[in-house]
Structure formats: structure tokens, C-alpha cells
Specification:
This protein has 314 residues and is an alpha+beta fold. It is 39% helix and 25% strand. The chain folds into two domains: 142 residues, no CATH class; 163 residues, Gcn5-related N-acetyltransferase (GNAT) (Aminopeptidase, 3-Layer(aba) Sandwich).
Length: 314
């Protein structure tokens, strides 16, 4: 069930994303010139030769998870209580699940079906949330190709809830080590009155935690960009915040870009060409500056001297 190296590489490449395998994790280019460690639960110590390799591949910044006392404090949202049930939910979420669990039929779904039905759900979610489109989810041909790859991978499964035989919400799950990750948990807006996402997540988590090989179900890392509605949903559904550290290594030539003055200029320039990216860059650069200040004062066990290939900015 667990992901081997070659299959995991195929899975990420099917999303149109660059990936390389490192000594203790995979490195994925999540955005242009921004590489991240994966899977997120693995604590990473970035070797100099791997940093140099990623910089040669065009990385401007490398973000990776580490022990909570080694990096800037953040968290991952997880369920790891094997007795998870309705009592694990916040009272409002529990009421919504109880009220609609009979109407929402939960079951596994095959990828050929999801290739046909999932794309339209994806498009409405990106439009409704005003999110920058990810083509492997919003382009019909690329979504179909992605599903064909998923169909061949033993560590990827799909589940959905149906109302009157129509798919109204779904999520992929991937298994890695003893973790199960939820991916693309999306729902149709016209069925919101039935709370299909509450029912889906509740039954999905319960089903996964009942598997002997699954210790933990993850709903992902805390985002740099504040998403209070989503975070409230996670907590209401019984997630707990598991502390973890985050570190960023910046290419030596790019460090001026993330200084206070450099970031101000870059953000104002981006506002004219990529307004959405300007906001994201502002948040990320502020995180880099905060971590740099922590490194200078020695907080959280940070190194005060830069390494040869980009300082681990703490």
C-alpha cells in the first residue's frame, strides 16, 4: 500500500510538477522557483549538497519541515485517535453529520468515474474560492491523464459521497509511511445544505484510522496565508494541531530580494502584473524576514552562521 520511490515520482509528475528524490525526502517545485520537502511529516535536515542541487535546478527558496524546536513554529492538522467517532467532533459538526449521514452515501470510487465526474467539481471550487487554477485539476485532458496515472498506483485511493446517485463531494487519499493524506477534498455548492464535506471527512477519517497500518490521517500543513474558515472546519471535524518546525533556505544571490527594502520593491512591482502573486510574495517574504531575525538572535536552535549554499533562515 505504501508509496515506493518510482510510483511517488510518477504521481507528482502526473500533476505537471517537478520532483527529485533526496536523501530523506522528496523535493517538489510547488511554485515556480519554490521547492518544498515532501511528505510533510518527515523531519528534514537539509544537506549542503542537496541545497546546492536544488539551487542548480533553479530554486530561489527551499522550504522544509523539521523538528518543532529546530525551526519556526507551525503545525500540521492531523487525526491520530484510533477511537475517532462522532464524539470527536465539535457539537455543530456532529449535528450536521448526524442529520445528513443517511442522505449522503459514502463509498470508494474508481478513477475512470472520477475522471468523468470530478473535473466539473474542481472547476466550480476554483471559481468559487477565486483560487489560481492548477491545470492538472481544471483542464479536462490533464485531469483525465492524472486520473489514469492514479489508477495504476496502489497507494492512491478515491472516496466520495453521493446524493441520489450523484457525486456531490470527493477526496483522494495517499498512503506514505504510516500516514494517510487527504487530497483535493472538493464538493458541489448546490449540495451544501446537506453538509456533504462534513459527512465525507468524518467517514473517510474513521475508515482510514480503522486500518491497522494507518497511524495518522493528515489534512495538511498550516498555511502561510491565513485561512480561518478552513482552519475552523478542521478543528470542528476533530483535527488536532501537531507542532512541527519549518525552515527556509534562500539562494545566496536572492537574499536581497527578501530583505525589507527588496521585498517592498518586488511586491509593488508584482501588483501591476500579478496582483494575487504580490500578496503571496508579501506573506512569504515576511516569513523569511521573521525567520532571519530569529536566526540572528539564536531562537529555536537556529544557526547564526550561513552555510555555504544558502543560509538556513530560521
Amino acid at each position: 500500500m505504501d508509496a515506493n520511490s518510482q510510483d511517488y515520482l510518477r504521481f507528482v509528475k502526473a500533476q505537471g510538477t517537478r520532483i527529485v528524490e533526496g536523501k530523506s525526502c522528496y523535493w517538489i517545485e510547488k511554485r515556480s522557483h519554490l521547492w518544498e520537502s515532501a511528505p510533510a511529516h518527515r523531519r528534514v535536515h537539509l544537506p549542503e549538497d542537496e541545497a546546492a542541487m536544488l539551487f542548480r535546478l533553479g530554486a530561489i527558496a527551499i522550504r522544509y519541515t523539521c523538528d518543532a524546536d529546530e525551526g519556526t513554529s507551525t503545525c500540521q492538522y492531523i487525526w491520530d485517535d484510533k477511537t475517532f467517532g462522532l464524539k470527536s467532533l465539535h457539537k455543530d459538526a456532529r449535528r450536521n453529520v448526524r442529520k445528513n449521514i443517511d442522505a449522503c452515501k459514502f463509498k470508494s470510487i474508481d478513477f475512470e468515474f472520477l475522471a468523468r465526474e470530478g473535473w466539473s467539481i474542481n472547476r466550480t471550487v476554483f471559481e468559487r474560492q477565486d483560487r489560481e487554477e492548477e491545470e492538472f485539476q481544471t483542464d479536462p485532458a490533464k485531469w483525465n491523464a492524472y486520473m489514469k496515472v492514479c489508477e495504476t498506483l496502489p497507494f492512491v485511493e478515491a472516496y466520495g459521497v453521493f446524493i441520489e446517485d450523484r457525486l456531490c463531494a470527493y477526496s483522494l487519499v495517499i498512503f506514505c509511511d504510516d500516514y494517510c493524506y487527504t487530497m483535493h477534498p472538493y464538493a458541489r455548492a448546490e449540495y451544501f445544505k446537506f453538509y456533504p464535506m462534513n459527512v465525507l471527512i468524518y467517514l473517510l477519517v474513521k475508515t482510514m484510522l480503522e486500518r491497522p497500518g494507518v497511524r495518522c490521517v493528515s489534512y495538511g500543513m498550516q498555511s502561510y496565508t491565513p485561512r480561518p474558515t478552513l482552519e475552523r472546519f478542521k478543528i470542528a471535524m476533530g483535527c488536532r494541531q501537531d507542532p512541527i518546525g519549518m525552515r527556509i533556505a534562500v539562494h545566496p544571490l536572492a537574499r536581497p530580494l527578501f530583505s525589507a527594502s527588496g521585498a517592498w520593491l518586488a511586491e509593488h512591482a508584482l501588483r501591476f502584473v500579478r496582483p494575487r502573486l504580490a500578496s503571496q510574495f508579501s506573506i512569504f517574504s515576511q516569513a523569511v524576514q521573521n525567520q532571519a531575525r530569529g536566526s540572528a538572535t539564536g531562537d529555536s536552535g537556529a544557526e547564526t552562521e550561513p552555510r555555504a549554499f544558502g543560509a538556513d533562515i530560521q
